[in-house]
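User: My instructor asked us to take a sequence, write out its structure as tokens, and then describe one feature of it. I'm not sure where to start. Here is the sequence I was given:
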Amino acid sequence: MKQETSIDLVALAAGALFAAGLALSGMSNPGKVLGFLDLAGSWDPSLGCVMAGALAVHSLAVRWQRRQARPLYAERFSLPEQRDIDRRLVGGAALFGVGWGIAGYCPGPALVSLVSGNLGCIVFVLCMLLGMGLVSRGRHSGALPQPSPR
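Assistant: Let's start with the prediction itself. The structure tokens for your sequence are:
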């Protein structure tokens, strides 16, 4: 029980840090995201700078992780085994990108933006949850394929 509580606190702290980073960098503002995607208009490169910073931090974390025998709060690391670039991966990435370009939100920033009470954000999150529920229901009913075993 005590380890579960400490895992929950670590997850809460990581989520709060991520949310604060999104809010402080302005990435929970869909106008900022759409400005980055507007190459022909008034392009705003700041999202690219945030992404580059995130990649730098992540690459350092991966280097550190590879030197560890096991994670702090689990028996073993849970890393993806599948490395193939297939139709599902490309299709999912394209669908994500189109949705991001239309709405200006992706899941993390949308959840952070819920506190604003913006109706567009609320609609986006409700539609995202509906889509997730439909996919889960389709997989349980057998109408959609299960994810590849990893």
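For the description part of your assignment, you could build on this observation: Residues 2-25 form the longest helix (24 residues). Try explaining in your own words what that tells you about the chain.
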